[in-house]
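pasting for the record
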Amino acid sequence: MTKTRFACFGVLTGLFCLGSNTSSPQVQDDSTHLRVNVVLVQLNVAVTDNQGNYVTGLRPEDFSVTEDTIPQKVSTFEESDESGHGTMEVARRNSGVVPESSNETAASHAPANQPEASSIAAASGVAISRVAESSLFILFDTSNYMYRGFVFAQDAIADFIRSMEGSSKIAFYSYSRNLSRATTLSTDPFQVISGVRNSVAGDDAALYNSLLLTVKDAAPWGGRKAIVVFSNGPDNASSVPPEDVAELAQSTGTIIYIISTRQAQDDPVSAAAFERVSKASGGKAYFAKNWRQEKQAFVSIREDLVHLYTLSYYPQANANRGWRSIKVKLVGKDLQKYHIRTRDGYRLLPAVYDGTFRANTDSGGGAN
């Protein structure tokens, strides 16, 4: 039987009806609806050179975006104001100067629950801003796979939370067979770390169920949103496949990073799934064999988050009502040597989730 996957996508404005805030990983509530009205599609883009250094100083005109081969016009453009080790500044082709942001706000493009960011108007009419806060969800494996390294994992997560202070709202969730929302989005690192320290070990691991629920929690938030998963073993209790999680993450514009404490060769099936899910969302998968590599993975994720470009566009008229493919390229021969990482599309059709994915043609919405 053909399976129509769960549909929603990354927008800065829209109507989300996500149902009750349940902690059950089975996701069996038939009343869980998602109604969407496309206004703005948002992309988080990493640009690196051949050595993996982040490329900074790019402008909206340096990017070319197509949706189903239809050229799109960038409407908003954000970049982090952090720079340092592992970054390189691109020399401007014209003036050589990257303008500073002003104190004006980009409120006209921000939803009610998105932090304001200072912005300037580019000559092309694109609103350029510095990213204020992002929404970050940490999902910690507390199943029986984690017993031996539990304390070391808590220490690594706590250090990561401290490193993100001032740049993100952070929520801390844990999972075994059920999902536990220990701390909702907060700017108080002590509150979030308290949730980490109070987490306890559980039983089987329902990673994909819990990750699906976490993506749904992140979906209504504007701006950058990311999930960092800390896993110590395979999923052995979920009712949804990783492919459904990957598509929902793509469609909501949610980046997924996965840190696995098992080497890829020890569990090739889970490793391949982790790679697919993270890559599809524009994130990365890490395989750490000891606590030092776990900490290095968290450092790498922080560097990635603070060096992403965030750009958005209003979709041009498009008759395609299903999956829409997105391609982002750099313009100009001097920039084509760099590498781009971002999600590669989203699904337009709304749907109802009832244990399988089926289309709900009665739910309105759409870009065109």
